[in-house]
Amino acid sequence: MMTDERLLKRTIVKEEILSQHLKENRTLRIYLPPGYNEILSYPVVYCQDGEEFFNFGRIATWANQLILEEGIEPFIIVGVEVNTKIRTEEYASFGNRFEAYLACFAEEIIPFIEKKYPVRRDPSERILAGDSLGGSVSVHLALRYPELFTRIISLSGAFYEQSQHIIALETDLSWMNIFMIVGLQEDNYATDTGVYNFVELNRSTKKILEERGATIHYEEKDGRHLWGFWQKELPAALMYFLQS
Fold it and tell me: Would you say which domain of life the source belongs to (predicted)?
């Protein structure tokens, strides 16, 4: 990555919203691109694990580089922060806060951002991004709110059996476009709910999605279930959707 000072000069705003669904405040981090102008309109990337996408994924620096050096159209990033202690309860389809989280995201966070920032409102201009359970909850958000979300970046998605079952209930996913990547060294990964083979989970989920007509960009590469792997893959994932 370039250490050019222009790439490190980032505008990141913090917002806080009170969620009626989650009965608590939720912090958002918003990246505004170089040359940001309120009278323009921008594509938008919504990230689960917002804090980690900025701190470990270095998504703001990557965004600057793509915009300033690769000629990508400027875009806004919204990182939705999560309390890691209850992350599984919100992101996993079997979690006790899952329904409330989906509702908060679609019915509270999206309207808040769209009222305050000049983001485009067409589903083709909105991207959901997440790692591990953040990848699977992004798919579930799209399934629940297809009028809002059709484009998903899944970095080593945690597509557990319950998630696969929910996806398999769908009959037509021709409207969905998903960028999936998984690391080949993720075949025996311990989580707070068990040990999983993420390679097999992603392969079988890809098959379920394909059978229902989804558009999929799928890759397996050397890599572990860590930000060290995902960070390097973020630029290609973003360019997949943002390159005109």
Answer: Bacteria
